[in-house]
Specification:
- By secondary structure, the protein is mainly alpha-helical.
- 66% of the residues lie in helices and 10% in strands.
- The chain contains seven helices and two strands.
- A two-stranded antiparallel sheet has the order 1-2.
- The two termini are 32 Å apart.
Length: 148
Amino acid sequence: MHRKRTVSFTIRSLSNIIRRRIDDLSDVAVSGMTGMHGAIIGFVCGNLEQGRDVFQRDIEREFKIRRSTATGILKLMEKNGLLTRVPISGDGRMKKIILTDKAMATFELIDKHMRHIDEMATKGLTEEEIAAFYDITDKIRANLESKN
C-alpha cells in the first residue's frame, strides 16, 4: 500500500534532519551544548544588540515552548555556566537572562554553524523559491496556531 505524502509528516521529517545538524553544534562549540542552547544564546545576543533585555517568557514565546520546558533548559544552561538569571527590582519572579563570557565566546562559532546549515538547506534554491517557502510556512504556522 502506498501512503499519500502529507505536509505534516514532511515538515516533521525535515525538522528531525535539521535538528540533527544543529545538534552537531556540540562538536563545534562547547561539549554538552545542544542546538537549543545555541539558539537561545543567539536569540539573547540578537536582543542585546538591539538594547532589549530577555526574560524566560520571551524565550517561551520565541521558541514556542512551555514554561516547564524553558525552565529546564535555562537551569541546565545555568548549571553549565552559559547564563545567569538575575531577579529584577520590583518583581522577584521576573529574572533577566544574562549570558556569561563562556556563552558570548561561543556565539561566533554558533552563528557560523547556523549560517552553514542554512546554506546547506538552501543550496540550489532561487531567491524566489526561498521567499515562497517563507510565505508558505508562515501560512501553515498561522493555520496551526489558529483555534479553528
